[in-house]
Amino acid sequence: MRILIVEDEFNLADAISSRLKKENYSVDISTDGIEGLDNALTNIYDLILLDVMLPRKNGFDILKEIRDNHINSKVIMITAKNQIDDILNGFDYGADDYLTKPFHLEELVARINVQLRKNTINQKNNYLEFGDLQLDTKNNQLICLKTKEKIEISYKEYLLIEYFIINQNQIISRENLYDKIWGYDNNIESNNLEAYLSFIRKKIKIIGSNVKIKAIRGLGYKMEK
Questions:
Q1: Which of 50, 112, 146, 158 has the most CB within a 10 Å radius?
Q2: Are residues 91 and 141 in the same domain?
């Protein structure tokens, strides 16, 4: 899953990013309001951590604008403000949660996990499942429930499989995959996605799963049982 941090205190944003990457989240950072809004409007983020006091555009205005543009990313406001009016304004504009500074990183991670878990399909403890395929979200492993075989996967393989499981039975375009996994401003080679999908297919086959990732001509890819 992909998270955008909009925070002008770079050291704080960097610390949050490093911690979230340990949870296998893909993270981008914006350090001012205009850049943060532009990135949020790409609609590639599952969750946005949004500071209120930002250069060039404040967090409340950003939140209002992304909701006006029907961006449904989860939003957690992070700010030094703790006035009840500010908190209520955040919720009125469409925030999902509100955390005041200073805060403990582990509390932030827990709140993020709660918000993103609401959108996760068939999650049991630390696992995502589709058919006989199980993704261990803590240990970066693929497991076949039928054969009990397991195999290690890389970070990018993990992000791709997670995205396919969450969007199971849907056709996902190449552009969507590039944006969600590599970011909207990516410069990767055009055959990079195919290479990763080839690795994933081989690993799924090795553990004996019946799940397949099919290429749909002209449309994209689909995970099927």
A1: 50
A2: no
For 139, the domain range is 124-224
Q: Are 193 and 174 in contact (CB under 8 A)?
A: yes
CATH at 7: 3.40.50.2300
C-alpha to C-alpha distance for 169 and 148, rounded to whole angstroms: 24
DSSP string of 191-205?
Answer: THHHHHHHHHHHHHH
Local confidence pLDDT in tens for the 225 residues of the chain: 899 999 999 999 999 999 999 888 889 999 999 999 999 998 889 999 999 999 999 999 999 999 999 898 999 998 876 677 777 877 888 999 998 888 899 999 989 988 887 555 445 567 889 999 999 988 889 999 999 999 999 988 998 999 999 888 889 998 888 878 877 555 666 678 889 999 999 999 999 999 999 999 989 999 998
Tokens representing 131? 């058919």
Quote the CA–CA distance of 103 and 5 in Å, as a whole number.
15
